[in-house]
Amino acid sequence: MASSKSLLFRSPPIQYESLVGYLIRMAELNRYPHMSWIGNLAGVNLTEETLSKMSTRLDRLATVVGASAEEMKSLCYYVSAKGNNLHVILSMGEIIPKQYLYWPSQRVCFSCLREKGFVSGLWDLKAVTHCPEHGELLREACPACKEPVIFNRGRVAPCLPGCQHNGEGRECSDSVQALMQLISNKFLGTNFDLTEFGFPKQIVDGDLYMLLQTISFLAMRSWRGEGDIDHGWLEARPETMIEKMDHASGALVNWPSGYFKFLDDICAGKGAPNGAIVMHWMFGGFYKSLVAMQKRLQFLFDGLQDYMNDRLKGQLLTDRGSPAILNTRDRRTYMPGFVARKQLGVGRQEFKRLVDRNFLQSKMFHTSYGDIVCVHRDSVREYGQIKERLLGRHELSQELGISLHSLYTLGVGNILNAFHSPEKDGWPQWYYDRQVVDEWLHSLRKLAKPSRVGRETLRLSEAVAAYNKQGASYCRLFHACKEGALSLYYRKKDDENLLSCFHVDRRQVRNWYLSHA
């Protein structure tokens, strides 16, 4: 019996529905387990088709689903430009690079799926991270039943039977949701009212490609003077796009104040005395790239000019993007504090403790925009080497095979001192220098004798436990061994911790404690 070449149950396309979403809805209506079954009827492999071929397959699909060719074309928001696989033509005739799209996207708004029952074509745009209507994050799996979203599925909502997910509510700021609505207006022709958000007139009146390039320039934040503004979207991942959209939306709402705050973030030292601003190296790349894009993004360049005239007021101090604060001789010896913090990977409070406790040699320089703390380059290099060797007390106690309290008493007894600690230099945690620990263990091994077979010995931990009531501690044992009152023995096994290799003579320890008693 020959199979039918058309679907039994049909439904007209819904406004704003995507092509793949329409086929999924038809598969669910006809009880097909996978959307690709419809493609098999039309002789189209929907799981392998590319944008460059999809435009030539629409007539076959239209015959199977019972829709007109024009209706199918309205669902396919983008078809590849003939002879150019790097760009796509949108339904309104606009051409954009293909790297701005996921096709087909597996990110959906679960609230829209349940309320409206279709997959929106807007979700294929990489710049769309949240639903413009609900503000809900586009997800690749249901947050309730954890069922993943695959485009070759047989249900509009991929959730498991019985899933009661009712949506997550708005998960983005007002500015991000407004930017999503602006993209929707450009891409789908929706009519979200955005007058209260104060977007620049240029992108409100401009085309979708200009808006995407603006977002790309502000969001990627990797400015190169002659780099391709569209190239950054090739490596764009959904998990990183959320933060990028937050940067871009914050710069575009409440124009130009939002843009000025965005520019403040790429300036280093914006809180310097006397109101001066020292430009970070990133600002130079931003300026150079914006000059290269000036013809396309003229309003961003004009906003930058206004920023420099309004905020800087002639107090800009630069030297190839770095503060011009030191003379030639001092520049060889000292570096600004914020540069040292970046090299060491420490915060402001941690850096202040290093300076106050003389771990870093500092000097105050008087500049044209106030006093600035600079530190000696050699001290930064030396502490950087020490910082790589530091280990926390939890890690060290596990390696030594002793408790945290025993490790603390070693410091009290001046056996093994911490490099940083709350008592020593106000550090919130204990840190030990691995080089000092290794030297201490080496000295113990030099002091210890080889443990002979047949000798009745105790591990240090066993000796402390056995004579705990007599006041036994690691400190007392180490001091007794160093003074020669007790003999220390060394025997290493592969499964032992570091201090478990050291032993003392059972009889000698007993006699020593009896004599003291």
Account of the protein in words:
The protein has 517 residues and is of the alpha+beta class. Helices cover 44% and strands 11% of the residues. The chain contains 24 helices and 15 strands.
Q: Which properties best describe this structure?
A:
single chain; alpha+beta; 24 helices
Layout of helices and strands:
Elements: H1 19-29, H2 36-42, H3 51-54, H4 58-65, H5 69-75, E1 78-81, E2 84-90, E3 95-97, H6 110-116, H7 174-187, H8 201-205, H9 208-220, H10 238-252, H11 257-265, E4 267-268, E5 277-279, H12 281-292, H13 298-312, E6 316-317, H14 328-333, E7 334-336, H15 337-344, H16 348-356, E8 362-367, E9 370-376, H17 377-389, E10 390-392, H18 393-400, H19 404-412, H20 422-425, E11 431-433, H21 434-447, E12 449-450, E13 457-459, H22 460-466, H23 474-483, E14 488-490, E15 502-505, H24 506-516
Parallel strand pairs: 5-6, 12-14
Antiparallel strand pairs: 1-2, 2-3, 4-5, 7-9, 8-9, 10-11, 13-15, 14-15
What is the beta-strand fraction? 5-15%
Rg measurement, Å? 34 Å
The separation of the N and C termini measures 104 Å
Largest sheet: 4 strands, mixed
Summarize the structure.
The chain has 24 helices and 15 strands. The chain has 517 residues and is α+β, with helices and mostly antiparallel strands. Strands 12-14-15-13 form a 4-stranded mixed β-sheet.
